[in-house]
Automatic annotation (TrEMBL):
One of its GO terms (cellular component) is plasma membrane. The keyword Glycoprotein applies. Its main location: membrane. GO terms for molecular function: G protein-coupled receptor activity; olfactory receptor activity. Pfam families: 7tm_4. The keyword Transmembrane helix applies. It is a multi-pass membrane protein. This is Olfactory receptor 2AT4-like. Keywords: Cell membrane, Disulfide bond, G-protein coupled receptor, Glycoprotein, Membrane, Olfaction, Receptor, Sensory transduction, Transducer, Transmembrane, Transmembrane helix. It comes from Eublepharis macularius (Leopard gecko).
Length: 316
């Protein structure tokens, strides 16, 4: 945090990006452009497959569609501005734009943790209570579960974003990040007790909304594993586990990237590595989620082939 001699109304923030990679902006632009296009294409393919294939009109794939929509929105919140920064050196962002980006990024990130809990609950009901699954996981109930995840998660960041917008800044503050992450913006504020409290508050909220859902997911999978172990048939155990393995890999990938981002704030590491670890958190799961579900789920794989292969043949 800075010690400020002059303070006033902040109109713009300066996004620093990667301080030690200023001579590699064009390669960075193409790398992140490819990532963004892959994220859009793969997640849109998942959405189309679920919508167009009647075999995928099940609760599990309804929640997967929500996850794909979320991943598109999450990356669209940050990557387009990053591309403009890399290609056109467009590093200024308005104060309103910065706090709006901060709200949507953190709100959508929290939504992902809540959706992963909902998806784990769906797998718990399917494996632990298969006879009651269709009764408990009705279309109306699924919509309510998904809506509650979206609405409650989008409410979580409001206090931190509103309070951080009231911090004292000097001149055009430099945000040492590729986008307006909450802790990076707080660290650009003038040093005082309120800013220090915001730093603590933001980190505490992030820890709570990450690890409470992780605890719920862990409880669900403990019950799932115990239920699978009680199945006498080896083929039955294998089939039961295969229905939740994709989601389990997604959860592991997501929380691994969160752990990397959290550790980067506390570890004494180069600034570029710290920023990159947070950027990885923002793009890793949206990039790998469709790949995991396509490769490991036979129903999704078949539905995707029905969409992609005819289009390729028609093109040629």
């Amino acid at each position: 945090m800075e010690n400020c001699n002059f303070t006033g109304y902040v109109r713009y923030f300066f996004i620093v990006g990667f301080p030690n990679l200023q001579d590699h902006q064009v390669p960075l632009f193409f790398v992140f452009l490819v990532f963004y296009l892959l994220i859009l294409a793969s997640n849109l393919t998942i959405i189309m497959a679920v919508v167009l294939d009647p075999k995928l009109h099940k609760p599990m794939y309804f929640f997967l569609t929500n996850l794909s929509v979320l991943d598109i929105l999450l990356t669209t919140t940050t990557i387009p501005k990053m591309l403009a920064m890399f290609l056109a050196d467009s590093r200024l962002i308005s104060a309103h734009g910065c706090f709006l980006q901060m709200y949507f990024f953190h709100g959508l990130a929290v939504t992902e943790t809540f959706l992963l809990v909902v998806m784990s609950y769906d797998r718990y009901e399917a494996i632990c209570h298969p006879l009651h699954y269709t009764v408990r996981m009705t279309k109306r109930g699924n919509i309510q579960l998904a809506a509650s995840a979206w609405v409650s998660a989008l409410l979580v960041p409001i206090p931190a974003v509103v309070q951080s917008s009231q911090l004292v800044f000097s001149g055009t503050p430099k945000v040492y990040h590729c986008f307006c992450d909450h802790l990076a913006v707080v660290q650009a504020a003038c040093q005082n007790s309120y800013a220090n409290f915001q730093n603590f508050l933001g980190f505490s909220i992030a820890m709570i909304v990450s690890f409470v859902p992780l605890l719920l997911v862990s409880i669900s999978y403990t019950c799932i594993i115990l239920s699978i172990l009680r199945i006498s048939s080896k083929d039955g155990r294998s089939k039961a586990f295969s229905t939740c393995s994709s989601h389990l890999i997604v959860v592991t990938t997501y929380y691994s990237s969160i752990a990397m981002a959290y550790l980067s704030y506390r570890a004494d590491i180069p600034l570029d590595v710290h920023i990159m670890s947070n950027v990885v958190f923002a793009i890793l799961t949206p990039l790998v989620n469709p790949l995991i579900y396509t490769l490991r789920n036979q129903e999704v794989k078949s539905a995707v082939k029905k969409i992609v292969v005819p289009k390729i043949l028609h093109h040629y």
